[in-house]
Batch of 2 targets.
Target 1
Amino acid sequence: MARMHTRRRGSSGSDKPATDENPEWSDVDAEDIESRVVELAEQGHDPSVIGLKLRDEGVKGVPVPDVKLATGKKLTEILEEHDAGSEYPEDLRNLMEQAVRLREHMSENGQDYQNKRALQNTESKIRRLANYYRGDEIDEEFTYTYERAAELLADE
């Protein structure tokens, strides 16, 4: 059981259907899907949002339930092939955004101990995730600092 910073249990979610082929009602061409993925990435959408848009809006009106089944490649692989991917993985970047917001809040509200703890927990998660990605998705020399995170978010 993965309890990180609270005593609460995780919420269970739905599982993906156990299938290894694309449903016949979703017969969109793989190249059309790839071009739509790149187009959405250039509009500034994150990979998770792109997946939701393909599921809900589809490509040319036909929904795409699973990009990997339809194209044979993960959504992030498609983005890397077209140099449209982000420098950092989405989950790490989101945590860094949260840490920057909390740090700015703490500079104005020094007595807010609840958020002080939230900032410590968030930065702890960032360090754990950085260890996971280090050398593979991110640079071997990467270490988290507030300044680096603020700089990263200012660039975007």
Note: The mean pLDDT is 90.
Target 2
Amino acid sequence: MIQHRANMDWMLKDLAESVPQTRNVVVLSSDGLRMAQYGTDTDTADRLAAACAGLQSLAGAVSAEFPHSDGKMRMVVIELDGGFFYLMAAGAGAYLAVLADEGVDAGLIGMKMRDLVARIGEHLSSPPRGEGPAA
């Protein structure tokens, strides 16, 4: 089980508060487990993290269509009625997800996400889980 990393909360808060109209920020492992969150309740963050695992997998499959791709997803952006969804690779086995309202500055949110990942990417990593004893 991946523990909630409370020491990341202030960094996620800084991202959310520095970009007007940012709603939720979630850090998740590649297998869809919530690692940290800001601006949302635990149940919503868990659902978002699980959905993101599927999206990053889909993005990896699409990357196979590019002849020189390394198969790794960097960023997915989805525009929806009412807002935007951003998913960015954030370290080995970790991702940063952001939900924002329609009027968000898309360039600013992308830049702030990249800055956050560059500053603390190694702290956002989620090492692969080893084989444990059978329960």
Note: The radius of gyration is 15 Å.
